[in-house]
Amino acid sequence: MRERFEFVALVSILAALTFALWIGLDTTIVGRISEARCVNVVRGMLESGDWLVPRLGDTLRLQKPPLFYWAGAVVAKLSGNTAAWPVRAVSASAALGLALLIFAWGRSLGGAAEGLLALGSLAAMQQFTSSGRRGDAEMLLALLSTAALFAFYRFESRRERSLWPFALCAGLAFLTKATAIVFTIALPILAYLALQGELGALRRPRAWKVFAVVAAIGLSWYVAVLVFVPGAFEAFRDALLLPLGDSDSHSGSAHFKAPWWYLSVLPVRAAPASLLLPFVVWQLWRTRLYRGEPGRRFAALAFVVPFLAFSFLPQKQKHYTLSMIPGLALCSADALRAAARELGSRFGWLVRGIGPLLAAAGLAVAIWIALFYLWVESLEPLGVALRVGLPIALFAVAGLAALFDRRPGFGLSWLLGLLVLAGIGRGEVELQLIMLSRTYMVLSIDDRERLAAVRRDHEWFAISVLKALEIQDDD
To answer: Which tens digit of pLDDT belongs to each residue from 199-211?
Structure first.
């Protein structure tokens, strides 16, 4: 019975996650500057036939290696679509791959139940679903970096005899975003080896062979560009120095933040799964960073080290949290199971107290979306019900399951409701909000009068719509 539930839960979560990632992905709206750049670079590759040197118009685009551009160009060529869909499809596919990878890693640490908790924690982080729908290199980097760490973990735990899978993933991650792998791959491994007293392993011939393969894959494009493209050296130098705050580098934007900036950013970007952060901190402290449990310690370092490393990097951006959340998902799964064991019956009362509140919050968002369809989009009640009926039912089931302390039922129903709402919100409502903000002045007089009436009669709703637009712009 338990195995059947775990299988049904896995299939259901993956199906809901696929819906959340892919619905509305073919829209022509390009919201972020980074996404617009990727779309134009891919289009330029296909039009010029030059796949070696990314270009944005007539300008060389050498700040990042081209693996993501290549993947987007392949999808664009196969699909015949040169708009935003191909690059977004790469990110959505990478997000699904990362979800499966985190499930596999969690299962290897503590069985299928822990794998599902890790998968659920990852899927419940808004940064994950947001980046999975966005056509830039971040999600592909997260997948390849996490795959490299997982390959290293399997080698260290004697579940895999070869390091070549690690070398391949690390090399491809370098081809995705260059020196970012120092923070996402190299530093977590170095920290783990140092804590385990195994830094001497880096001097072995086998390690140097692996480094050589990673370098050969990662640097191959750089060597080719340096040979064939005049001025490439200066462009590479600027791209390397910019994140370190070098004043002589002018090839991008600056994002200087204080070292403690991510203390406020991470809980927002990992919400609502960040509600588990107190349990995570408690478990990390209680176990002294999993002393005596090498596998769990390495998974924890996959979260802690990027968090600390990016915190002390002079320039920061919100999407850097994407490198932290796979490890955080693994830590959240173990911390939740540990809390259930240690708190005993008190954990049940915690579920009864917080669970219905979470279900009510989900219902409130679903009702807001229903009102948006009803008042702003002027849909018929049946059309509204068809769109939001399922998440409303799922949150109702989640609330009842929480009241009766049916934890698996509560967790699964609530997560599925969240993912369905995320798909509707990002795939339809968010797009309609963007279009409304851009085309309001060209709407018919009747439509503008109708919207003015909504604003007059339901001021709180109009304010919430404006707030949603602000959040979308900030995202």
So the answer is: 998 999 999 999 9
